[in-house]
Amino acid sequence: xxxxxxxxxxxxxxxxxxxxxxxxxxxxxxxxxxxxxxxxxxxxxxxxxxxxxxxxxxxxxxxxxxxxxxxxxxxxxxxxxxxxxxxxxxxxxxxxxxxxxxxxxxxxxxxxxxxxxxxxxxxxxxxxxxxxxxxxxxxxxxxxxxxxxxxxxxxxxxxxxxxxxxxxxxxxxxxxxxxxxxxxxxxxxxxxxxxxxxxxxxxxxxxxxxxxxxxxxxxxxxxxxxxxxxxxxxxxxxxxxxxxxxxxxxxxxxxxxxxxxxxxxxxxxxxxxxxxxxxxxxxxxxxxxxxxxxxxxxxxxxxxxxxxxxxxxxxxxxxxxxxxxxxxxxxxxxxxxxxxxxxxxxxxxxxxx
Length: 353
Known about the structure:
Helices cover 76% and strands 1% of the residues. The protein has helices at residues 4-34, 44-59, 62-85, 95-113, 117-139, 145-164, 166-169, 182-185, 187-209, 212-222, 224-229, 234-260, 270-283, 290-308, 312-326, 330-342; strands at 175-176, 262-263. The termini are far apart.
């Protein structure tokens, strides 16, 4: 049997070892992001995609470049949503609130206050981030299904408020008008402007996800209790992630105004929040490029399916079911699996390579 003084000594040693282990674990987690070198291959695919998009925008007929422009702008919406869904493990059906706020910030300031498009475009992301923080302060006190339901409730609340405030928002009629600068009305100019804003936004979000902050966010998705045991304030990290996602969703909303030169309450509807989730699942939520692929595939498929059938939602729903059952890692995961097979390293189905 141990004496009481021996038990005390063993307890102190064990406590010190646990603290050292936790400190070492947290330090290594933080160093994972800062210690990686960014070689030329890191930027090869993004640069290639941007160049291909620019060439297509130059040579395609205007009607098709409009479709591509909208798909490109939606990639910001999808990647911002995936910052919560894929990297943070937070299923949000409220991102349409910030998308709509981005569009309405431009439209309402043009209609009531006479602000220029550029002033409103700078203001909109901060409005989206502030609204996202307010939502997060409430919704993040719940988890999993309840978090998703609360964000959906906020989305519906915003939709109703915008719809009934006719004197301020024009209600269900929406807002139409010359709120976009003249030179952006040109299809080619608007395409390259949207492409430029999208490239910068995606690079910033990629930097966020590959930083120590992004790695902590992924760790909290996989094992929240362990991360909290290391001394990390998970609530604060998730709140910051929501603010960043709201910021970029609002930017995507301002680009919608360039595309449509209008805005309307349906942007706040929960189904609008479900669209980027759909894109994320199609493209693959655990690959950064997945939502970008999903946005382009979804919008192009949506456009052409409408021309052939009124039941396009049924077709896309079936596609979603097939992807979830056969390739839960999405099209990006399927591409990685194909490349691995070509190299002779077969990846497990549905897993990350």
